[in-house]
## 1
Amino acid sequence: MAFRLTPHERGFYPLFTRAAENIVRAADDLAALVAADPPDRPELAKRVKDAENAGDELTHEILVKLNSTFVTPFDREDIYRLTSSLDDVLDAIEEAADRIVLYRLGALPGGVARQVEVLRRAAAATAEAMPHLASMSQLREYWVHVNALEDEGDAVYRALIAELLSPPDDVPPAGLLTILKTKEVVEVLEEAADAFETVANTVESIVVKES
Amino acid sequence: MAFRLTPHERGFYPLFTRAAENIVRAADDLAALVAADPPDRPELAKRVKDAENAGDELTHEILVKLNSTFVTPFDREDIYRLTSSLDDVLDAIEEAADRIVLYRLGALPGGVARQVEVLRRAAAATAEAMPHLASMSQLREYWVHVNALEDEGDAVYRALIAELLSPPDDVPPAGLLTILKTKEVVEVLEEAADAFETVANTVESIVVKES
Amino acid sequence: MAFRLTPHERGFYPLFTRAAENIVRAADDLAALVAADPPDRPELAKRVKDAENAGDELTHEILVKLNSTFVTPFDREDIYRLTSSLDDVLDAIEEAADRIVLYRLGALPGGVARQVEVLRRAAAATAEAMPHLASMSQLREYWVHVNALEDEGDAVYRALIAELLSPPDDVPPAGLLTILKTKEVVEVLEEAADAFETVANTVESIVVKES
């Protein structure tokens, strides 16, 4: 019978999986919000905010466990970084939902829905990968996939920015303000895509260390 | 007689207290600057800048002590995080003062003074809490208080942004520019409130670890 | 014969030097881009992007080495911070190049070329300093120099922002948009200068620890 001299605390893996599944829900709600009529958006933004609060509680739970666990499955600093990068993803998704409502934006350019679609796919890939942390298997496909999604998101983002920032010469100041508000939403969605890549890079560095 | 086998280096606590008291002074000067006539502001911004320089020296002193101390009162990484989050508060306060002067803003919307008032109360709570790090007592009230202040600051911030970004349809481009400059100041004040919350969360995680 | 009980892995120093030399090349290409006619800029932005990719590979190489090395020449966390701050410099330089092209900016204000000139000098100073990490000598001059350059960059930055944000009252909305795009480039160049200072401060804290 195989056994380990330093039995690892395995309770971290389900928490990472729950954190990622929580992000899946937030990304779904954000997609619904982007497609919704403006009067229906505040309710959906509240759901994204609830997901962010649930994420904060998971972060707290992971950090408490980290502080009370003597032998962790991988470096404490890596657990800290993974937790904090998952938190960054959720913060960016929540900020995007919040800005769309706070800025009272109307219909959004089509590229915004495409950005959110990329986020949903990155969220699904992340939630699928987290349970594999226990066995350190099948994670290479995950980070290659997330890096490809980040490239795709980047192309959508760049096309959107180029389109937004080339208004007709006679755009009125109020139209310019709408452009600037929309640009902020587009930027924060791009930050969310980058944050998914940081999660994947953190997982990669954990796997490299263990191999 | 009680004694400790690993006598803790207690010189860190007074440094954290001094860092927080320095933030109190910077927040007071920022409040004066916001209330002042534009010609009187550069002098007050200089005082805030002086406080930021004093804060940088304290940060340096803490890090030098950290590097020369074998047994620290709590995790080195926690000392690093607490120092760096106190530094972030001061940086945001200084940036707000600086932007108001650099952007040559005139009278500011009333909400800005309310944001700064929240910062002053968070600064006072932080300065009062730091000496309790030595005994790890009475810190729960502090972080509950700072979290409540952050919620209050957030409400002020959101109302301000909604007001700023709904100008009349015939706003001239120069008026739009003033709106955008003011929005930047409002954002950085919100960052300062968030940074106070990060300080409180860092203290919370230190207490959780020690308990 | 002198020998060390814990032979340090010295392979880190050449990697830091290569990372800094890569930044020198990126800063040179950015200077060429700023001076170039707009149609010639995308080719130069691609070169800066290539440098950023090369930098990412160096970062990866350093982190892999860090994870496979038992005894490092200085604290693992310091190696991590130095690597990550060099990466931040390159990211900011790449972002500036990218924005100038993505935003289809025309001729840039003279201050932008002055900002980039400061970056080139900071890059040269950094590349010259990295090989001295092995002996921990002559590093004080380096960080004093980089801090002076950061002050110089800050003065250029502030004059530029004051100039940009004081357009004539009858500026049209399209002119305002150009101002805001240019301001973003100017801000990210200032971030690059700050990031060089963070590299220097990290080196300083390593030297303080070792002395």
## 2
Amino acid sequence: MAVSHIAFPDLVALLEAIFVRFGTSRQVAAILADNCARCERDGAKSHGVFRMKGYTDSLATGWVDGRAEPVLEEAAAGFLRVDAQNGFAQPALALGRDVLIEKTRANGIALLAIRNSHHLSALWPDLEPFAEQGFIALSTVNSFACTVPHGGQSAVFGTNPIAFAAPTRSGEPVVFDMATSSMANGDVQIAAREGNQLPAGAGVDSNGNPTTDPSAVLNGGALLPFGGHKGSSISMMIELLSAALTGGNYSFEFDWSGHPGAATPLTGQLIILIDAARAGGAPFGVRAETLIDEMASAGVKRFPGQHRFAARKRSDAEGIALGVDDLNWLEALAAD
Amino acid sequence: MAVSHIAFPDLVALLEAIFVRFGTSRQVAAILADNCARCERDGAKSHGVFRMKGYTDSLATGWVDGRAEPVLEEAAAGFLRVDAQNGFAQPALALGRDVLIEKTRANGIALLAIRNSHHLSALWPDLEPFAEQGFIALSTVNSFACTVPHGGQSAVFGTNPIAFAAPTRSGEPVVFDMATSSMANGDVQIAAREGNQLPAGAGVDSNGNPTTDPSAVLNGGALLPFGGHKGSSISMMIELLSAALTGGNYSFEFDWSGHPGAATPLTGQLIILIDAARAGGAPFGVRAETLIDEMASAGVKRFPGQHRFAARKRSDAEGIALGVDDLNWLEALAAD
């Protein structure tokens, strides 16, 4: 497959043009294009330009409002809510971000509960900037019913990712972002597209039988949680935090059947922010590096988030590697 | 094995006498006895009277201070710290509990960061009462190096449990409490005592090879995290929250070799409390029940915490079933 290299600002501009062409406001386009281009730049292919079909199909079908104006509510001194008004979650976060930081600085901890929102990207792009500013951040988002709870027979949970970011003294922040299903849905889609099988235990077919065929999982089947009953409990917690606490939908509650092609779940997102400067004892960033060093001494070679920082350096130096077919497809999407 | 039944208050009084006999203050004895008796009552055998040997050995060797007076620090409007002063974590929580609730009511969210503390019990007894008062609670505690990080060769993490509790409208709260190692250490000890094998993937021996022999895990071997790299990332987060944020030790940092028999890890505990009354949309408890109902419709028969509530009902009706040998042993411990 022929590969082309594109500079980060050029990819952002291209994606921005696509979003605008599909009816978003300029502001929403700028936020989503930056987010999506960061995923592609950092090698997070399943949330990079691969997602543009989902974004544009959802916009084209009218399922998500690309011009929604989110509304910020202050529920308490440390408790912010945003009604995304059927728009994307990232502009809702952008609206609440500065106030959330201010409240976290004042109180030591604060949360932002986003509802009526569509989140089709990874969570780490939301959290990494907080860690770079000295905050510990935790976020959960639910998605659409595609994961069978442990002990159950049909899908209730979404892929329900949880992400965590924490600052270090001098290095890159610690950032992990993982689906609490056995796999991320984007990776199942990629496996289906590329004709690969899934690992054992990843999912079930439409009859509830174990399968490693990505198409069987996507067509009437379902994923299983990671880690058995423990992963299932965490996924349940993520539904409660992302939906019951925010006021958003559970993964099984919204009905997008009237919008064929819609790919953006209409749920909620929770972000909890902690001011690492309030830590007891030695500075948090110093202590975080002590843990990283000990893990390295124990033989750990790969740390959460590290592969993204490595990919970012490559992309910054050489440009972002994109298949020529993908680039042509994006340019066609952007054209009038 | 002959079984005797003992009423909850009688078990509390017996355990209290033991703690006092091993040098704790009356207040610490009352808190720990209640905690331990609740575990036994609720069928959480690995944290019930089985743990009394660890408590009394740790006290006898002078490793933990049963008369420590914890010190409360207000770091910010929503950020409390407690220095447990080398005492147990539960009295430190008891000291901060009312202020934590007050701060959570005022701010919507608050945290309590306990350091220099020993936690040998389960986490759910700490959290369940918060959920009964309408709060969502999350807690983490690290322990002692006995779990190999994913991709590593030697133990760095503890069993590092995470617990979560949330209120429902009318029923029992949702409460889960799970080790992020493949098993809880208490369960490995019980398997060793009863001559049972561990499930595949539970741990490694002293040469780093997979084993299902609990003795091999306990004698120079180590546990593995649950759920592969994902569980390992969560365990890493728990070290950062319970140690780096609180100011306590990492699981690999304290040295109890001068106190043979010491069984109580000297680390830290984090508790995050959220006021469910600030939730967006419908009341949180109503929404939590909607999720539970949907999971039940999907065929889930057993919910986190449910087995404990069932055991509690039995114990309240019939008394707590204890082996006669165990009861004799406890009575001997309590005697002068």
